[in-house]
């Protein structure tokens, strides 16, 4: 049992001062107000740790390698070919090293948990490893080493495009039929078993990559688990879906997939007004990855309309080119400002934009990852973040102005410490295993470069 005293803490009831937390068994056993007591660990500003609902860990190692323009118009589809080539070269050891480096960076940025949307399953020739979950086990090992809360999301990926088209060679490490995928899901669950606080979810990559029957099959494998799918990220995807089915991707999912709060639609960028309202009514979470969506030229999600319709959203780092809670939330709001030519789009009149963004993303992210919503409250998981009150952006700030200044005014990291399930993993902005993890990451990336 340990105790922490915070000068200010953001609780479900709002900001409170002089808060004492007692931690036991990975949870906040009690929360009281009062002066610090001998033996308390003391901090200035305490916030819930943010869930990261969508990550492709292996892509962290290729950040910056797709920024040379080719002939013609450079698009997502050109970037995807670079990603395929990179994915074909990675071993399970490479994946573990890269994922661990990524998860250290996530924790140092204020994320407490991650949804690993995992489709790099098989050996370089496309055949399953002798241990079908070798890659999933590598992800689990990275989660164990770093301490991040891991929701592992094995992904069914069977086809190259709509209508059950045969996969192309660059996709061979992703491809599974139903039997292989079912085995992979069970083996992934076993790989997670030793990992405290882990969750298993399920995904179909996209409507491009599965048939309707395969989508239903994946969703039925673990009917109580969260279900994720990419949807409507690119205009070409929308056009191809229309040609295949006569419906747009989100429209098709609303009519055929039984969307509910169990579901998370990643991106959902290109929606009509009726799709936006329907997705909000369904209870499904919109999994927004603002930095990646900007990097890939996806477009701008209709966030104001979605929120007005009662929709729930969370944030993810997707291609992992840049890792930061504040960065993702800022990019989400700034994209809305640019497209609407107005300010403070995602706050209600008179309210803090930073508070609105943080609160919504905590709830939506936790729902999508099958986790309790992070909260500084008795009984909640002890997943929280302290900010450095001496950061230049935070001097003299109180309450919601802290959030606004962190998200919109901090030009360098402001996260000081991070606890996950009551374990202090980051102190002074530094993860306890940063150097050891980086050494393995460096060796892996240098090996990938030599093989390339």
TrEMBL record:
Tagged with keyword Metal-binding: yes
Entry GO terms, CC: cytosol
Lineage top rank: taxon: Bacteria
EC main group: hydrolase
Known EC number: 3.5.3.13
Cofactor requirements of the protein: Zn(2+)
The keyword Metal-binding appears for this protein: yes
Annotated keywords: Hydrolase, Metal-binding, Zinc
Gene3D superfamilies in the record: Metal-dependent hydrolases, Urease, subunit C, domain 1
An example molecular function term from Gene Ontology annotations: formimidoylglutamate deiminase activity
Ranges of residues in domain Formimidoylglutamate deiminase N-terminal: 1-43
Amidohydrolase-related domain span: 45-423
Protein name in the entry: Formimidoylglutamate deiminase
